[in-house]
């Protein structure tokens, strides 16, 4: 069993007044681009180009209302890009027009109310098509799988904020973050004379920066898992240990995804690790 992950890298250099210009807002494709997308879902590469037109008419009334509610143009555009891309990917996989898709919410495992995992409304495809959407400044991540799936992408937090944020995590996760931030005395190598003169010598990351990176990795895994469960943060984050050395929760597999030095991403699959492979990563244009 294998899942697919669809990553959009957004151009953060554009100012908010220009952010509504489509196409140029999206970064160039990586090594696995349209050809990989087409292989995973025949006929999908063509529809993906439609996402570049940023045709918000494919969104339903609720999605358009939510987009309009954002005060900052960049936030409005990020939401719109993410939901147009989701509809484009799912429509390509199902052979349907993006605007014809209808969504619902599954019951929440905590309270039974209809605010759990998002799902396709109406007739369900066979095999099942589960999906998850996440977006943050600079990135959009979509995951699809034949089993319940959660996806999360996070911008690395400010190092100064991490100590306060850590308190909500499992004790083992907190210990991993602190261990990752430790720098032994004298462990940082000096740049060579030539490197120092040219300014090209790479310096090791500081303890606070490494702490922020460790937190970002764990938090992406945490949110992906909780979204896969359908609880979101309705389930207390400290209840589950998703540190690197821990066994994943029973029946689940977690995968970290590469998404650049400023972001962290993960996908959680409701399937044991013995039956899954890492998601195929497609970088959309």
Q: Describe it for me?
A:
- The protein has a domain of about 190 residues: 4'-phosphopantetheinyl transferase domain (Ribosomal Protein L22, Chain A), CATH 3.90.470.20.
- Helix 2 runs antiparallel to helix 4, helix 5 crosses helix 8 and helix 6 packs antiparallel against helix 8.
- It has about 280 residues and is of the alpha+beta class.
- The protein is built from 8 helices and 9 strands.
- It has a 4-stranded mixed β-sheet, with helices on one face.
- The relative contact order is 0.18.
- The two termini are about 25 Å apart.
- It is globular, with a radius of gyration of 20 Å.
- A hairpin with a 2-residue loop joins strand 4 and strand 5.
Rough outline: globular
What share of the residues does DSSP label as strand, in percent?
15-25%
Query: Which second-level CATH architecture of the domain at 2-155 and 247-283 applies?
Result: Alpha-Beta Complex
CA-atom Rg in angstroms: 20 Å
Number of helices: 8
Helix content range of the residues, please?
Answer: 25-40%
Structural class: alpha+beta
Provide the low-confidence segments as ranges.
15-52, 183-203
Number of strands: 9
What's the story with the biggest beta sheet?
4 strands, mixed
What attributes does this structure have?
single chain, alpha+beta, Ribosomal Protein L22, Chain A
Write the layout of secondary structure elements.
Elements: E1 2-9, H1 34-40, H2 45-51, H3 61-69, H4 73-94, E2 103-105, E3 118-120, E4 130-136, E5 139-145, E6 149-155, H5 159-166, H6 171-181, H7 193-198, H8 207-229, E7 253-257, E8 263-269, E9 277-283
Helix pairs in contact: 2-4, 3-4, 5-8, 6-8
